[in-house]
């Protein structure tokens, strides 16, 4: 080939490559547990799966269906998501916390091996930040679980020391203890927590130097564990693994460590691991006990603006109320401590971070798909809730930075996951044993007939609502009154047949769904936002809208039950009409988001 033509082609290729928009995939709440891991101090490798012949360390189906996340099949979903990302050619993956399930050493090793494999094979660079499950507390703590599956189909306890746990069948290994920050940093420092030579810039909230004076050597010094401590309360120093990184030219990613571990008793020793409250409340405690993060974000936002850097933040915790304006209604209906309302950030959180100049924030924690927007003066903050791979609707987000002012967000749903049913024969054995024990609420075995990961996760939600959400969140007398009602009954509670005839409404058309269906659909919208519409019949969605309108028109002050139903339809309406949460464009110049 002519040398001049060859040089020209090289130039064009380099130009097109330079023009390609930066893309970041966000994978939150993976809750990775290593099904095929091993312990460093015990030869237990799990129970043999008759389908594969492989030893497997897994939790019971019963425990999965009582939890807001699954523990086992998300292993396969994680691999599928990474394969998808590799196939799309995306080279940057941000993981906003709960990348592990309680940060045990054997799970961290398994996660490390997988991330390293995808880095070596596809050149993907991973940037992690911590969630309330990694770590559970600031320092290492003994622990374990009662609900692993044993050889005989019964539960097996795996604990880090002998005198904890209820299970009679036991495995004792230090690798099941809950790691603290130091152990997580040591195992996963290659994935954002330490600088890499190829990063253009890397820093922490404790750096006092300008980014213009940055060097890799300085970055390494800043990354040291002992340089990343702060006083969460007087006399109590704990780590903060927040960092900012420039992985590609002119894009700054802020990984905010939103975990705030506040001491329960100020007279206890600072290193007493059991003396710290959990971090699940999120940013509400950052406002009171971790204010250096707010000043740091303000400084970064100003420097980014001055130096034409695009600033993207990600944390485990939401910055904006994620209930689409329904929080007050939910509180009135169910009470302040139901529906995970304690995890809703105060309005002050959104206000503070909008005022300091943060514009784009990705979060996890809630295992939901949602978008929230706040405007304060001339500033706008967009909070994108990344769904979990371990809950309905399993998905990840992709951010495409078209320009500093224009970005596109897509939601990539995992409907099909290879091997998702690999463990089903083991659950068959578990069910058989449960069936023969007395006084145990059985999970629905039909989940083992599901044919896709999507259907499996939808079934998980259905069982979660039946076994946990309804008993825990809803007033017993209300559930008792509604348990035999269908859509027609709900209509006839507020209108008689003649009134409906005048409105040209056929009550018989509403007969084919029950109040239980409605409650499940409510949780579908809470979890999947607009994407839940694909899992609800179109005719039923129209009927819900009509019922909401008819109940809204009712003067129901004298009938508390009708008042409650009115509230249910109002919540359903708000959750199903939020801001775009599937595929949308963020326009920072116009300060708006647009559905695509």
Describe this structure in words.
The protein is α/β, with parallel strands linked by helices. It is 36% helix and 18% strand. The chain contains 18 helices and 21 strands. It has helices spanning 3-19, 61-65, 74-87, 105-122, 181-193, 216-223, 283-289, 292-306, 327-334, 347-355, 424-436, 453-473, 476-482, 487-492, 497-502, 515-528, 538-552, 560-575; strands at 22-26, 47-48, 55-56, 92-96, 125-129, 144-149, 155-159, 170-172, 201-203, 229-233, 236-239, 243-248, 251-256, 310-315, 360-363, 370-376, 379-385, 395-403, 406-413, 583-587, 592-595. The strands form 5 sheets. It has a 7-stranded mixed beta sheet with strand order 5-4-1-18-19-20-21. A 7-stranded mixed beta sheet has the order 9-12-13-14-15-17-16, with helices on both faces. It has a 3-stranded mixed beta sheet with strand order 6-7-8, with no helix packed on it. Helix 17 packs across helix 18 (560-575). The longest helix has 21 residues, at 453-473. It is globular, with a radius of gyration of 25 Å. It starts with a helix and ends with a strand. 45% of the residues are buried.
